[in-house]
Amino acid sequence: VSMQSILDAYSVMPPVTRAYTTACVLTTLAVQLDFVTPFHLYFNWELIVKHGQIWRLLTSFCFFGSFGFSFVFNMIFNYRYCLMLEEGSFRGRRADFVYMFILGALFMMVSAIFVHMLFLGQAFTIMLVYVWARRNPHIRMNFFHVLSFHAPYLPWVLLLFSLLLGNNVLVDFLGIACGHMYYFLEDVFPRQEGGMRILETPSLLVYLFDEREPEPIAEEERPGGFDFAEVPVEGQM
Questions:
Q1: Measured distance CA(88)–CA(80) in Å, rounded
Q2: If we measure between CA atoms, which residue out of 71, 81, 63 comes closest to residue 154?
Q3: Rounded Cα–Cα distance for residues 74 and 98 (Å)
Q4: Residue range 112-121: average pLDDT?
Q5: The predicted structure's pLDDT at residue 220
Q6: How far apart are CA 94 and CA 176, in angstroms?
Q7: Mean pLDDT throughout 129-154?
Q8: Which of these, 104, 98, 103, lies nearest to 19 by C-alpha position?
Q9: Which residues does 67 contact at the CB level (< 8 Å), separation at least 6?
Q10: Which residues are CB-contacts of 56 (< 8 A; sequence separation ≥ 6)?
Q11: CA distance 199 to 102
């Protein structure tokens, strides 16, 4: 893969995917170059509240470990499913997508306080995978050309894969739980009898992130008060 093809792929990324992917790569690069250490980045509620280290609310979602197979694997999944959500079910709804990021992060941070999880990026990736998978139930997946299944099973296959590798499956469980909470409140509950949409995107996010099309100019507002409709077309004078 050439550097130019990477730059071309980067330039066409939708904005939310580009911003999060860039933050993850730059955070990991900063650790590799010894500008910071993981001890400056991990999630610690006491340091955030009592010492004002609020950057940990962001950096704990952006560090995926040192460069290597695990980092590449996580970044591919992160980029792929973030991109497919932004260009799929959230197309034209950027504010809703940002709101999902915020809600998912809040769900995870509250959970992390009780389960003592230090880095939340992998769980966040699983959450993105879960939401995408539930919204695309009929897509067939092929995992390393070994397993074939429908998309909703993908988060559980990844959990099994983590278990086989000896990783902490609590990370996957947390991502699945937060993804299901968002999916249920946004996609399931509003469609049930007596249900309603609870996760209404705040108007501030809509104002900041949604693209607004320019309003058409009314006839009477055209410059100079000139009636352009009366201008003769060449050849019809």
A1: 12
A2: 81
A3: 20
A4: 88
A5: 47
A6: 23
A7: 88
A8: 98
A9: 28, 32
A10: 41, 42, 43, 44, 47, 48
A11: 11
Each residue's pLDDT tens digit, 219-234? 444 444 444 344 444 4
* Cα 90-3-124 angle, rounded to 5 deg: 35
Q: Which of 57, 78, 68 is nearest to 13 (CA)?
A: 78
Tokens of 196: 């309603």
Whole-structure pTM over 0.70, yes or no?
yes
Tokens of 3: 């550097």
Contact 73/35 with Cβ under 8 angstroms? Answer: no
pLDDT top residue among 214 and 101: 101
Cβ within 8 Å of residue 60, ≥6 positions away? 41, 42, 43, 112, 118, 119, 120, 121
User: Which SS3 state, helix, strand or coil, does residue 148 take?
Assistant: strand
What is the structure's pLDDT at 126?
93
Beta bridge partners of 149: 141
**Mutual orientation of helices 121-135 and 169-183 as an angle, nearest 10°?**
40
Amino acid at 86: E
| Residue pair 129/142 in contact by the 8 Å Cβ criterion | no
Q: What ranges in the chain are assigned the alpha helix state H? A: 3-11, 15-32, 45-50, 56-59, 69-87, 94-115, 121-135, 154-165, 169-183, 203-209
Distance CA 237, CA 179 (A): 66
Query: Can you tell me which residue has the tokens 């990021």?
Result: 101
